[in-house]
Amino acid sequence: MDLLVDGFRQAFGLLASGNAEIRAVLWLSLLVSSTATLVALLIGVPAGVALALGRFPGRRLLISAVNAGMGLPPVVVGLFVSILLWRSGPLGVLEILYTPVAMVVAQAVIASPIVTGITLAAVQNVPEAFRLQLVALGASRAQMVWVVLREARLPMLAAVMAGFGAVISEIGASLMVGGNIKGHTRTLTTAMVLETSKGNFDAAIALAVLLLVLIFLVNWGFTVVQQRRAP
User: Which CATH number goes with the domain that contains 86?
Assistant: First the structure.
């Protein structure tokens, strides 16, 4: 119990003192996960729409793969991204392993199936009769897709929140492809693992509190937008 109390006290102390290292870790965590979520949206939204509205051979197999990918273990992602980016790997020439870019790549791989799956479900939830009516009124396919996405905007925000929540809190992939390098690739989750391994439980709890506060604030902002009602 004393550890928890000390951890909360230290967390508020770190926030109040404006510690430069903590600010850097917070900023990197937010930057990497936000960028990865944006990349996942750019990949997942078109893929989800294509799977929801398209009819082609192998569609069910792809949907099953997306649904399975929503539970993809981060350590597995970290393993394969590390192999791809290793010096002798297919993308080793890029020399981005153990950099924030590699962390973005790994986190985007984790978040993309989540965004794709939720987008797929959101678009399929829009009645087919509504889509057919849009086409009958002369809407092009692009216009129809845009209107359908507007109708599904609330579940789409849930896709953003789910994708961001999955990557901001993951540890396996970030640790494997980032290396937890101080001042370069250290995030809240990797710093928490390091402090725990050193027996600094109060510092680890402080970092955990900061992570929870960050997750809450970001999702609170998205929730305000999602639940807003037009006057």
Answer: 1.10.3720.10
Give the domain range for residue 79. Answer: 2-227
- Total tally of structural domains belonging to the chain: 1
Q: What is the pLDDT of residues 138-165, one digit of tens each?
A: 777 788 888 888 887 777 888 888 899 8
The dihedral region occupied by 86, where left means phi > 0, alpha psi between -120 and 50, and beta the remainder, is beta
Amino acid letter, residue 72: L
Nearest Cα residue to 163 out of 216, 121, 109: 109
**Per the structure block, which two tokens stand in for 131?**
């889509």
Taking only the tens place, the pLDDT of each residue in 115-130 is 999 999 888 888 778 7
Chain segment 79-113, per-residue pLDDT in tens: 999 999 998 888 888 889 999 999 999 999 999 99
Residue 58 to residues 62, 109, 133: CA-CA distances in angstroms? 6, 21, 28
Q: Which of 100, 109, 101 has the alpha carbon at shortest distance from 79?
A: 109
Q: How many CB atoms lie within 10 A of CB 77?
A: 23
183 conformational bin, left if phi > 0, alpha if psi -120 to 50, beta if neither: left
Opening angle at CA 174, ends 24 and 202, nearest 5: 60
- Flag whether the pTM goes above 0.90: no
